[in-house]
Amino acid sequence: MSKKKKQKPVYFASARVLKWKQEESLPGKLDRLLEKMDLAGRLEKDEWVAVKTHFGSAGAHRIIRPVFLSRVVSALKAAGAKPFVTDTVRISGLDYLEIATRNGINQLSVGAPVVLADGLYGRDNILVKAGDILGEVAVASLIHDAPAMVVCSHIKGHINSGYAGAIKNLAMGGVSASHRGCGWRCGRGAMHSLGEGRLFWDEDKCQLCYQCEDICPLECITFGKEGKKFEYADERCWRCGRCTRVCPGQAIAHEEADPVQFMQGLAEAAQAVLGTFKPGKVIYVNFLTDIQPECDCMPGTDVPVVQDKGILVSDDLVAVEQASIDMLQGSPPLPESAASDSGLKQGDDILLELHKKDYRVQIEHARKLGLGSPDYELIQI
Q1: pLDDT digits over 370-380, tens only?
Q2: Cβ(283)–Cβ(313) below 8 Å
């Protein structure tokens, strides 16, 4: 008789509120979810814990709300730990902290210091060996050195990976954009690009709208003295690809990685980040709320494509990701959203259809790398 696979517990709290009690609200349910993770049993007294989240962008407001981050911080403090809320530099560090404050994430709102894991310049990082695709990546120093971490991930779509959850949060958010020695080639740009990751400009298609110049986080793009010729600073460019996404005439092309290779690279980077922690020192909190079609790093936020589902918590990366995508399957598209605009209907895989990227590749590769199991038991509180 074959031995039945052991299922990993994934705890779930529905976004529905059917009783008018504070403890039955979604923040109240999050408190009970975190109790299931036995934080006091996992953490040492006064142990520093990174609460990894995404600070959002100017105009991108559908991030994990501060009220939820404060509940995570409170639970960690109750367990005797010393938490800090963090993300890596995505634009100029000082500007990014200002954006975090405008989006409501600050020490007063979350109850813990809010810091950049790779410093104000985004170059405080440590090279860590990754897999065959990436070779090595620059893991943000505060995440590298932290003894424990709670990964708070906003579930959403993504133009390159189709689905963005905890794997993407670890890979793109735990790795810096650049390294002092090897630049973007050891940073998250290595996941985005093949070869040199060059940008190509088609003058005939260019509308001279300058949106690419405006959106560049490093001010790498200019149009010359007369404002008619596209130029970019190759060595400073992080290869984030934002310029290609906003170009209305598709005049800019980015030498991007193959989608499968990109997603396998995400799993490799996530493995490199998690390899700096001892077993049992990382837990995952996936927020299936405000499920928008794009990443939180873009300077704008579309309406959600499906209804809020709730929150999933586990100490198994693959299990919590598998549970998240299973929960999205069969969800009816919300009206007047990108999903309904595309003619999608209940039963369609909405994120797959919107982005045409088989996002399951990243989860399967994470399984192959030993980062968890897709076999889970969903336990609703």
Answers
A1: 999 999 999 99
A2: yes
CATH assignment of 196-255, among 3.40.50.410, 3.50.50.60, 3.30.70.20, 3.40.50.300: 3.30.70.20
| Mean pLDDT value across residues 222-250 | 87
Inter-axis angle of helices 360-368 and 317-328, nearest 10 = 160
> Of 293, 332, 5, which Cα lies nearest the Cα of 160?
293
Q: Indicate whether 283 pLDDT > 80.
A: yes
**How many other C-beta atoms can be found within 10 angstroms of the C-beta atom of residue 315?**
20
Q: Tell me phi and psi for residue 76, to 5 degrees.
A: -65, -40
Phi, psi of 206 (to 5 degrees): -70, 130
Give DSSP secondary structure letters for 161-211.
TEEESHHHHHHHHHB-S--TTTGGGGSTHHHHBSTT--EEE-TTT-----H
Identify the CATH number of the domain defined by range 8-190+258-380: 3.40.50
pLDDT score, position 4: 61
**Chain centre to alpha carbon of residue 256:** 19
For the chain, the domains span 8-190+258-380, 196-255
